[in-house]
Amino acid sequence: LMAGGSMLVRTLDAVGEYPPRYEMPQGCEHIHVIYEFIRSHLAADLSRMRPLDAVDHQEEGVWCLGEPGQAYLIYMLTGKPFRLDLSEAPGTFDAKWIGQRLGKVFDAFGGTLDGGKVHDLHGLDWRQWMLWLKKRA
């Protein structure tokens, strides 16, 4: 998704069902939850997002796509600490964890994160995580 896979988002609405003889690859059932989340929540935002330097980290493995002040998608290769600079983005953001390996999407930080400041954050554990922030209307 962060390395060009988002180009597929453009065609997600065209996908109604699988071709008649399609066989689902084994072991990818968990991706459906994330696919549906991307399709229903992220698709409109992803087309406006671009790589941002909103994260500061001591180690490699944290990247950010965003539309400044509106939406951010942070990918963590591992759950190690990083600093997220939202000082130029006042307001309240809805916050969701996306656990790729777990195939789960759930509230982060009680469901919201305050903008207008810098946050010291980390993933929930050693796994890969994505954090999605969307400004509340």
Fill in the keyword field for this structure.
six-stranded antiparallel sheet, three-stranded antiparallel sheet, 9 strands, mainly beta
Strand content: 35-45%
Mean pLDDT: 80
- As residue ranges, the low-confidence spans are 5-15
**What is the count of helical runs?**
1
Largest sheet: 6 strands, antiparallel
Distance between the termini: 26 Å
The number of E-state strands comes to 9
- The structural class is mainly beta
- Using the alpha-carbon principal axes, give the shape: globular
Radius of gyration of CA atoms, rounded to a whole number: 15 Å
Q: What percent of the residues sit in helical stretches (DSSP H or I)?
A: 10-25%
Order of helices and strands: HEEEEEEEEE
Order of strands, widest sheet: 1-3-4-9-6-7
Short account of what is shown:
This protein has one helix at residues 31-46; strands at residues 50-51, 55-56, 62-67, 71-76, 82-85, 92-99, 104-114, 118-121, 129-135. It is mainly beta and 137 residues long. The chain starts with 30 loop residues before the first helix and ends with a strand.
Any overview of this molecule?
Helix content is 12%, strand content 36%. It has one helix at 31-46, and strands at residues 50-51, 55-56, 62-67, 71-76, 82-85, 92-99, 104-114, 118-121, 129-135. A six-stranded antiparallel beta sheet has the order 1-3-4-9-6-7, with helices on one face. The model is unreliable at 5-15 (pLDDT under 50).
